Amino acid sequence: MRYPDTVNLPFNAAVLGDCFEMLHPGIPDDGAPGIWTILRGGSLVVAAQADRLVLPRGTLPDGLVAESEPVLIARWQGLPVRAVRIGSRAELPSHLAAEPFNAGDERLDDATLTLGGIAQQVLHWDLSSVRCPRCGGATERLAGGWGKHCPSCRTEHFPHIHPCAIILVRRGDEFLLVRKPEWAPGRYSLVAGFLDFGESLEECARREVREEAGVEITDIRYVGSQCWPFPSQLMAGFVAEYTGGEIRVDPDEIEDGRWFSVDRMPGSLPHHRSIARWIIERFALGDREKS
């Protein structure tokens, strides 16, 4: 397998190794040249270097107009890493290009994806927490972390990371995949959904499978997790066994659901960079005796 465990998946900070250090706001930024994670809509601004795409280094490239002040988010390989967002239609210098995070050909390497994902989460949190959701007052940063507080009502707020369950359901040698209408033609993936009030992650997994596909499951086992910064999810992966019911998809969310097997595959699977693909390869297509 490309990734031996879920901790090795892109968007998890472990991908960046021991040379990565997440910083907190308030650390002075001396403006030294560094690495730039520049977001343009759902894309990451990169430069072509030999046969790969890399993040710009040095100072902020000329001609780019930031929507807000750059944020110093980390140090990696001895260099400061800054995050900034530009307009979704901003023109780029000829040596730069905007590569979508969800590009089908997966040209961004794992470290680039991960740095870009962290930038995406930080900037999303900064933008969505400008105002206090309780009273509407302007917020200020808490010292020593990414949290914020409201001087008006004295409420503290912390980054919103939303847990989701993603589930592989097995029935003998078959496995359940579903498809949403907005996905690329022929692509199928796992049932997934957000945690609800009063639920454990295992209860969330059971409910989502019932709601989206109409079947019942048992033996729900946690297998790993992945940060998913679109905009700020944590995907908790599970494998479960089918116990009954016929597939009846929720038409508000799901276009189709089917049982597949190694000999009967869909036209397309999720990207290798996702925990969905990792679970399918490890627990549906791999050595079942080791699962």
UniProtKB/TrEMBL annotation:
Q: Do you know which CDD domains this protein is assigned to?
A: NUDIX_NADH_pyrophosphatase_Nudt13
Q: Which family does it belong to?
A: Belongs to the Nudix hydrolase family. NudC subfamily.
The Nudix hydrolase domain covers 159-283
This one is known as NAD(+) diphosphatase
Cite the EC number. 3.6.1.22
Q: Note whether Metal-binding occurs among the keywords.
A: yes
Any one GO MF annotation of this record: NADH pyrophosphatase activity
